[in-house]
Amino acid sequence: MQIIITDAWMAKSRAYHLSGPRLLAAILVLAVVVMLLSAVLYHWVFLKGARDGWPIIGSMVRLVVKDEFAQRDRYLKENIELLAKRLGEMQVKMTQLESISERVSGLAGLNPSDFKIKDGQGGVYIPGPNLSLQDLDSTMESMDKVLGIRSDMFTVLESRLFEQKIKKMMIPTQVPVPNVPIGSPFGFRIDPITGRSALHTGLDFPADVGTKILAAAGGVVVTQEFHFQYGNMIEIDHGNNLITRYAHTSKVFVKKGDLIKRGQLIAEVGTTGRSTGPHLHFEVLVQGVPQDPEKFLKAGGERLGARAAASAVMER
Known about the structure:
The chain is α+β, with helices and mostly antiparallel strands. It has five helices and 13 strands.
């Protein structure tokens, strides 16, 4: 390609020969120059129009600003909704944590209200830096992790305390016939029928026929039958090879296979079987071997009072 430039004043002409690569380079340089000039001109016109309030430019500026504010509002709204969701989740965890703490306090024998008193706080006010959305989100995330750890810890603690409470409920510490002194203790005695020395394998609770008999602990009824010596008899398995036996009853309100709660009404005092009068014969067997039931009942703290009352009556 050949370009001829003529100078009319000096009556001269110049010819430029452009090959393919040179022509391409010239076109690129020209395009870049035009783009730069257009950008500068657009920037100058846009700023000039925005400052002077030209109608068209002003409308464009307002649209751009409006769009920026709309994007900012949308961004803030999305973040606020996200934070609100996170806050709601934390509130749910706080509620769950409070519920678990109340149950744990109850299992531990503590009053939950003693831990709800907020400590007094105060001091000189020294304002700190403003929190950004990122700082707030990071703080809430840390609190969420702490709440999760505390919730897991309380759940494990509740499980352990509940397990211990269940084990205690399965130990026969409930007096089967409340407010009745022991008539005949565990150990060797003169048999009331034969008059000879014999081992008494339980405790006797003399009471009127029809007096309520309560389960000494929770468990499962494994025997409910008439025995020629024990009369109407109930045996409750409490686990760990521990069984309680209730004999000479008049009425029975449970049957084999029933789940029994501690303190539940299971029978009434009678004089069935080998008996000289209405009373409850109560036994505790560990691996089939009779144990002194009073050792278990003393663990419940009730047997001592009954023993003291009986002693006071005997002294009078």
